[in-house]
Amino acid sequence: MPQIHHLSRDAHARLVAEFEDLTTRGRIEVAEKIERARELGDLSENGDYHAAKDEQGHMEGRIRHLEAILEHCEIVDVVDDGTVKPGSVVNILFEGDDEDEAQTFLLASIEERNEAYELMSPQSALGKALMGARVGDFVSYTTPTGATLRVEVVSVELP
Q1: Cα torsion at 115, 11, 91, 84 (round to 10°)?
Q2: How far apart are CA 120 and CA 8, in angstroms?
Q3: Domain boundaries, the chain
Q4: pTM, whole model, 2 decimals?
Q5: Cβ contact 111:62 at 8 Å
Q6: Dihedral angle of Cα 100, 103, 104, 106, to the nearest 10 degrees
Q7: With 90 as the cut, is the pLDDT of residue 140 above it?
Q8: Per-residue pLDDT tens digits for 38-50
Q9: How is domain 89-157 classified at the architecture level of CATH?
Q10: 47: burial class by Cβ within 10 Å (0-12, 13-18, 19+)?
Q11: How many CB atoms within 10 Å of residue 6?
């Protein structure tokens, strides 16, 4: 079963626009670069040709990635009801740490990147454990190394 990507309306609109741009303007530009490079002759030693083909490969990979996200996404409207959910900004404190060591994360997929916050995937072990938690709740999760950690939810906000 494919992973569901939780996206805000803004992120969804950005991804749709990027997909449309890459599948139209992007493909045309790369095809023109490849054609111009072919006109230069011997393809085996043609750096422009190989660079354009590499660019085409990277672009097609991004197109496939966007296509998969958009096919399996759920648009979430974040409501400030005090619970942690995709799109929430959550401030947590690891058990045993001092209050000034609290960490703040935007619980969202990489496509929601925001310069103001470090991202935490809702699919990560800690992200899953935090889902539905409220301020003052303690949640435990198991790290990939097998350690069990406990964190306190200090605050939950909208971005």
Answers
A1: 180
A2: 15
A3: 5-75, 89-157
A4: 0.71
A5: no
A6: 180
A7: yes
A8: 887 777 777 888 8
A9: Roll (3.10)
A10: exposed
A11: 21
